[in-house]
Amino acid sequence: AAESGAIDNSKSSIASFVWGLRLTVAFSVGFAGMVGVIRIIKGWPLVIFILGGYSLIVLATLFAPKEIIGIAYDSGGITTSTITVPLITALGIGLATSI
Question: What residue ranges of the chain have pLDDT lower than 70?
Fold first, then answer.
């Protein structure tokens, strides 16, 4: 992002950007987990959330600065780590079997 000019190329600006990106991804994963739990409890169909989520992503992409779109899509891949996927999967399976 600093090389493309989306943020200043100073250490403090880069550190601030990285911290903000981490918080955004962390809150997004937490929010998605919360929505998933509510979806399981209420019995709502998954297809509504998948289509709605992708629609929002495409819409946001149309209005986002071109320099930041790649980082935004790469940030989505960060969430599929060796810790997040098993944790969220175990939460979903445990919740689904207890209901």
Answer: 1-7
